Amino acid sequence: MKLKGENRESADYKEGSKGKITLLLALVALISAFGSSFQYGYNVSVINAPAPYMQDFYNQTYFNRHGVPMDSGFQMLLWSLTVSMFPLGGLFGSLMVWPLVNNCGRKGTLLINNLFSIAAAILMGTSQLAKTFEVIILSRVIVGIYAGLASNVVPMFLGEVSPKNLRGAIGVVPQLFITLGILVAQILGLNSILGNAKGWPVLLGLTGIPSLIQLLILPFFPESPRYLLIQKGNEEQARQALQKLRGWDDVDDEIEEMRQEDQSEKEEGHFSVLSLCTFRGLRWQLISIVVMMMGQQLSGVNAVFYYADRIFQSAGVDNNNVQYVTVSIGAINVVMTLLAVFIVESLGRRILLLAGFGLCCVSCATLTLALNLQATVSWMSYLSIVCVIVYIIGHAIGASPIPFVMITEMFLQSSRPAAFMVGGSVHWLCNFTVGLVFLYMEAGLGPYSFLIFCAICLATILYIFFIVPETKNKTFMEINRIMAKRNKVEIQEDKEKLEVFHTVPGRQAVRTVISSSEL
Known about the structure:
Blueprint: H1 2-17, H2 23-45, H3 51-66, H4 72-95, H5 97-104, H6 106-125, H7 127-130, H8 134-161, H9 167-188, H10 200-205, H11 208-217, H12 225-231, H13 235-246, H14 252-265, H15 273-278, H16 283-298, H17 301-314, H18 322-347, H19 349-373, H20 380-399, H21 402-410, H22 416-445, H23 449-467, H24 476-484, H25 491-503, H26 507-518
Helix pairs in contact: 2-8, 2-9, 2-11, 4-8, 4-22, 5-6, 5-22, 6-8, 6-11, 8-9, 8-21, 8-22, 9-18, 12-13, 12-14, 14-26, 16-21, 16-22, 16-23, 17-18, 17-20, 18-19, 18-20, 19-20, 19-23, 21-22, 25-26
């Protein structure tokens, strides 16, 4: 009777703790996101404010070497490389995700990744002293590789250490720190702070500080329990890590769920990218992450930020004050992403995706109208400002944070690294493509460019509405069963599997499920 009472007390404690976050789990999320995701956002916008001073440095360095000023076309080429090498490095970093997380673990990969950031920070911070602009371009590739790895590994790591009822909220934390990184870079890049001729090397070099902090602190936190049990086969270490993260000793239910996932995947082994792309059982999951990642980057977020300055100028904002308006937009981005952290578990992933892309779609359509009419209708410039703000809100609550959460949730342990590699590669490739193509689109189409982004948002909405399921508060195995119905698996067969699973307890149930699916 005493044992039953203890079990009931433990169950009551866990039920009462549902929805709460332990101090250790909060620290893991904060240190992982600050040391990695923060720098992704920081390096996205860090070169925007000091661009004129950096270009002067390029020109002066070239003049000191050759005795003649740099050709304007060559200078434009060098600056284009400085900007575009970051997303290209991000693509290279995404391609490194699968081998690193499988061999070094999630936490181990984040620790190794810090070396890229610290090396790039030292090179960029000393570039003016060394009188070399080539080092800046090289460093942008290196910090891009860092961001490519960080943008994939942090959501994967946090998704695996989180309980199912907090997975969405904690999964949005990396995006929150990306927006914080953008905002901090915008603030430090003000002319009165570091966005000037003397301060820009320091501004670029500061990116190494969060990495150094993470490198010193993260080793004291546990590795992903799912990685330890399913991929390393060490149940004791996985149990200890899980007990630390959850704050209680009885973690048998989660360990058993991991065992079931492990057994269900033993026949398939670990997926490479090629096997993931050719495996019919994961076809709709793969298509879904590709569509969501393409929608995220091709929905016009870079174009909106590009147009923001001139939109505010047309509304009468003084040129000297535009930089402060840019900071205010960055602050809105942070606040709305923070809101997403608190509402993703109550509203669900689908609602935020549909609402986010819906707001972006309407904003792009209205912005096209407003930009075309603002020369003849005076109040249209103010409508343009509203459109920019609404667009930022839409992207912050859904289009930016949720796709990475969905990659974590729609794939099991054996296929998740390859899925992040594919999703991350699509993310960075689209980012690079938009940066390359948009200036030509803007020159040829002007404000009508936003109609293309509107169409992309609409197509993404339709796909999500008809195909992507709600994953809120479901285990990875439950989500996998939902997606199995779309992957040409008969519903009747799935019911038989569930029936066998519930009537035969323990490991034998899992083996029966596997043999049933192979018939």
